[in-house]
């Protein structure tokens, strides 16, 4: 895992240098302090999806390039078989499988997300983040506690939430067995 974090950090640093951007410019675009950005770019801390998404937007590249080092090449259609998406582990207790990583010039970032259940997560504030665009989360299995700027919803299998992802939002699994959901992040 640490090797993967270091490779992603190298790609971020390389892109920033190629584009002749300062750490401060990228930190501002990613909504982190310069000190936090320096730690992330050095590979000393794992990345959130939101941070990677904002980096990709700032650099004008596909998020797949930052995560894997590969450039998507398909433009007609792509098939990703069951559980064969590009794995992304960017938050403790969450596993993302990117379902569109082979398709270039995507207008959305589709993921299957697996959230592990942790009873303690339900007792503390849900970690919040934001990024440009809109998002659709559709519950496939289990229950999800979804929070957005002071509002909380418990979503069950078959429920969906569509929202402005520029607003502070977050979620945690809300029952034993965890939660599986489809998350589609629409770019602006």
Full CATH superfamily name of the largest domain: Jelly Rolls
- Termini gap: 31 Å
Structural class by sheet pairing and helices: alpha+beta
Biggest pleated-sheet summary: 6 strands, antiparallel
* CATH third-tier fold name of the largest domain: Jelly Rolls
Helix content: 25-40%
Q: In order across it, which strands form the biggest sheet? A: 1-2-3-9-4-7
How many β-strands, per DSSP?
9
| Overall radius of gyration | 16 Å
Tell me the number of helical segments per DSSP (H or I, 4 or more residues long): 5
Total domains: 2
| Mean pLDDT score | 92
Low-confidence residue ranges: none
Give the name of the CATH architecture of the largest domain.
Sandwich
Q: Indicate the overall shape.
A: globular
Order of SSEs: HHHHHEEEEEEEEE
What is the CATH domain class of the largest domain? Mainly Beta
Notes on the protein architecture:
The longest helix is centred in the first third of the chain and has 17 residues, at 2-18. The protein contains five helices and nine strands, in the order αααααβββββββββ. It has a six-stranded antiparallel β-sheet with strand order 1-2-3-9-4-7. It folds into two domains: 2-68, lambda repressor-like DNA-binding domains (434 Repressor (Amino-terminal Domain)); 86-186, Jelly Rolls (Sandwich), CATH 2.60.120. With 188 residues, the protein is an alpha+beta fold.
